[in-house]
Design goal:
Elements lengths: L17 E6 L5 E5 L4 E5 L2 E6 L10 E7 L2 E6 L3 E5 L2 E4 L12 E3 L2 E6 L2 E6 H6 L5 E6 L5 E6 L4 E7 L2 E8 L4 E4 L4 E5 L4 E5 L1
Antiparallel strand pairs: 1-2, 2-3, 3-4, 5-6, 6-7, 7-8, 9-10, 10-11, 11-12, 12-13, 13-14, 14-15, 16-17, 17-18
Length: about 200
């Protein structure tokens, strides 16, 4: 291949680390950056930037995925949806350290450091109360599926053909099991054990 053009600071590219690209239907490209938000590139020129002035308050953008005429943005500490010029943080999504987003029909699959979150795409976009399922695996090889409700959470332990479901509390933060009967609740100030 041959490099036909480069974009630099003099062209408006204030952050040189580009983490993801998404080509839109009109041929323009959305470039997610490491600290500068999202650059819009059209005909080899930067024509716009999506940043905190537009409602994108997390400027490290690791993934851009189109859905229903809009776009999901996975950032370093939040999930966003943008459509018709409006960028909204999806702050009802319970986890911030996410890596990607995959659209599977009407579901979104969001891999993160705690597992794979699965939810209805329309409910995630609506940003109201909704249920989320998480698939993860702990050290003892038993699989836990944590079902998130806005105020209620349960885990389902699957071992062979045996299935055990248990309510572990009413909360809005994140719980994780250690595979030995203890569940740990993450909060801003501490990690609290809950033995069931």
């Amino acid at each position: 291949g041959k490099v036909i053009k480069t974009l630099g600071e003099e062209d408006g590219l204030t952050t040189s680390q580009i983490l993801c690209l998404h080509e839109r239907e009109d041929g323009s490209v959305m470039a997610g950056s490491d600290g500068g938000g999202i650059y819009i590139i059209r005909n080899g020129e930067i024509t716009d930037v999506i940043d905190e002035n537009d409602g994108l308050y997390s400027l490290v953008v690791t993934r851009i995925v189109g859905y229903d005429g809009g776009y999901f943005f996975v950032t370093s500490n939040a999930l966003y949806y943008a459509k018709d010029g409006l960028v909204r943080q999806l702050d009802n999504f319970p986890y911030s350290n996410n890596y990607d987003i995959i659209i599977n029909d009407k579901e979104v699959w969001i891999p993160g450091s705690a597992g794979i979150y699965i939810a209805n795409a329309e409910e995630v976009i609506a940003n109201e109360e909704y249920d989320i399922e998480i698939l993860n695996n702990f050290r003892n090889s038993e699989e836990y599926q944590t079902v998130y409700h806005r105020e209620l959470a349960a885990y389902k332990k699957v071992s062979g053909n045996q299935e055990e479901e248990k309510i572990i509390g009413y909360f809005s933060s994140t719980y994780h099991g250690d595979g030995h009967g203890s569940v740990f609740r993450g909060s801003r100030g501490a990690l609290s054990p809950h033995v069931g």
